[in-house]
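Thread title: Can someone regenerate the structure for this chain?

I was given the following input by a collaborator and told the matching structure tokens would be attached. They weren't. Posting the sequence so someone can regenerate them.
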Amino acid sequence: MRTKEQLIAFIQKQKVAFIASVDEDGFPNIKAMFVPRKIDGDCFYFSTNTSSMRSQQFMKNPKASIYFYSKGLYKYEGLMLTGTMEVLQDEKIKKEIWCAGDTMYYKQGVTDPDYCVLKFTAVKGRYYSALKSESFDFKDLEQCT
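Best answer:
Regenerated them for you:
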């Protein structure tokens, strides 16, 4: 099994993250997003619109999953993490992950009420590579020394 740092390095190489929420009927809903802007321990931070369907779903049901993959000519790797998602309006974290180009999405800048941060806290995961899958508790993964 890979270490937590190896999995985070894998995530940071990707261009897309897939985010899954649960709708009001209990069905999973998946959306492609930019990769996390910040990773801190077991927490992954994404930017999105407060008014988005996904944010509204997370406010009602915090159960979530995120997925990353890499497909090469002969190798496929995939990482799914499950946990909870919080919708944050905290000004400090909003400023911390803000990028200059974000004004394209949030016309009023970092204080735009439609700009929020999704904080995903990983609990469990499943990693696939070389025709093998492994399930794990994210917090129990070894740290590199």
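The first helix runs from residue 4 to 13.
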